[in-house]
Amino acid sequence: MKELILALDLEERRMALKIAEALSDLVDRFKVNYPLILSAGIRIISEISELRPVIADLKIADVPHISAKIAEIAFKNDAKAVIVHGFAGSDSLKAVLNVSRRYDGEIYVVTELSSEGGREFMGNLSLEIAKKAKELGCQGLIAPATRIEKLRLIKEVVSDMKILCPGIGVQGGSFEALKFADGIIVGRSIYLAKNPRDVAKEMREHVQTRSS
After folding, report:
1. What is this structure's pTM?
2. Average pLDDT, integer, range 132-136
């Protein structure tokens, strides 16, 4: 089954929890990014994880021992997965993987950002990043729904490796991404909507239609 993941890229703790509680029956996981973690504190991961599993979108990209420390903090606070930048290199990916195994956690590696800037530098390396992530035993990739042809190529490279796609909605990504991906990550299109629940239901239907 394909997943709908809600990105809670908010800053206010109460609002984030309110939206999470209201939509937890429509989404499979929540993704929490720096704005919320820095504003509400690291324990927000634990609070939200009581509703659904949380992916800590820390986009870890540092030297190995620092990358490992960041991952450790996330997993200690009940994250089920962390997101890591592949361009940091094999040593940093291995360091985070070593931590994740102690917590039975997952690692998702960014191939390239879904924004236009993702084309400038990362786009030239995204296939190599995908290959390296698979080779090292990472559980999944973050690949853009905004560039379907690149997504198709990434899927060819990694075969059955799990792929999650941001970029649906405000960034103009296509639901065609679900041909190649195992889930979509949606944020502003849902939580900024006049009726977030209605939009979440619509997104859920797209995911379910392509799961059959």
Report:
1. 0.94
2. 97
β-pairing verdict for 54-60 and 81-85: parallel
Domain count, the chain: 1
Sign of dihedral through CA atoms 169, 172, 175, 181?
negative
Q: What are the pLDDT digits (tens) for 10-69?
A: 999 999 999 999 999 999 999 999 999 999 999 999 999 999 999 999 999 999 999 999
Catalytic residue among 2, 18, 31, 59: 59
201: containing domain:
3-209
Tokens, residue 90: 């094999």
What's 87's domain CATH number? 3.20.20.70
The yes-or-no answer on residue 162 being catalytic is no
CA distance 174 to 181: 11
Res. 2: pLDDT tops 80: yes
Q: Are 180 and 158 in contact (CB under 8 A)?
A: no
